[in-house]
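Render this sequence as a predicted structure.
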Amino acid sequence: MSQDGLFQKFGIELEYMLVLEDTLDVAPIADTILQQAAGVITNEVERGIMAWSNELALHVIEIKNSTPAPGLPMLAEKLQKEVEALGLVAAEQGAILLPTAMHPWMDPHSETRLWPHGSKEIYNTYNRIFNCQGHGWSNVQSTHLNLGFTTDDEFGRLHAAIRVLLPILPAIAASSPAADGALTGWLDTRLNYYRNNQKLIPFITGQVIPEPVFSEAAYEQEIYQRLRREIAPFDPDGVLEPEWLNSRGAIARFDRNAIEIRVLDIQECPLADVSLAVLICAVLKTLIAERWSGVEKQEAAETGKLAEIFVGTVKDGEEAVIDDRRYLSLFDKGDKAAMTAGELWQELAADCTPELAAAGQGIKQSVGTILAQGPLSRRIIRALGVKPDRERFLGVYRELGQCLAQGRLFLQ
């Protein structure tokens, strides 16, 4: 099928921790960093087509392209340059940038400081309703991948394909195997917190996998209108807009004609993030072209079944076993009784070889490395060993900080 308006505009948002250079403890200085860069206290510093901005927690800072990019590979170098420039500013405060989706020993109940400027009314409202002093709120760093569309039909086909792919994204993107100074037993601890984060109003997150809605009108009726109803008793002043509240694993942003994928843990360097984004888009393109399965079959994928597979990859990453033949058939693998998520990704990448090759040798090699060695969480676990102490954590995460500063993958 035609994809004329799809995969023409891309946005990537990367969230990093600010930590003290000597101890790697969290450093709640994002406002100081942004003020130093801009000359005034600000939520965002524009840097050409790129930008630095704040997040909910004061020790987290975001790098992004504020202007949609026409291609993904070009963003790897641009994002890395922003990492290096931001690192120089952080160094003046005795801090460095640290990757991965959770700080391995931060105590969010005693160390959380929320952004106190500008959009603080929104953050304060969130804090009043949900209490943001917890891992799922203040100790999470993710990569957001924004994919543009131009028509309602394109939105529907893109949303259908993303719903199908979301369950296996943690198998390549998990980077949060530890919290509270220990391995948690979950490869994607961030997403385990994320899916249980807003129990007070469960509909805000739903099952993380979005409902099967494939038009703007249906999305408005089935998701946004219900979000407004459910939050109203807790937010009588209407501070929290449904676009902000919506915490599904992929959210529609009709204000900018994009779908934002939110289940990706931040990687060790922009090259890794962009490489995964290229792989994800190659698979989405193939789904939308109906090479593996028809759009009707994709739209009919049951949310509950997709959510079960998702929980499996959140727990076990690439080793999660998928024995749902109906799901495998969406990728033309229905002849297999079962596959691990890692095996499925290997075959999907092989099917998308031309797309990966077109992105350049560096990205193609990075994808191959990640698929061969496992997601970053798996590599971190191997480096840490069975029962790591603080010294071991410090050594491994210091190396991860160097990977980010130098723009290289963490290999094990």
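Summary. The first strand starts at residue 10 and ends at 20. The domain at 115-399 is CATH 3.30.590.20 (Creatine Kinase; Chain A, domain 2).
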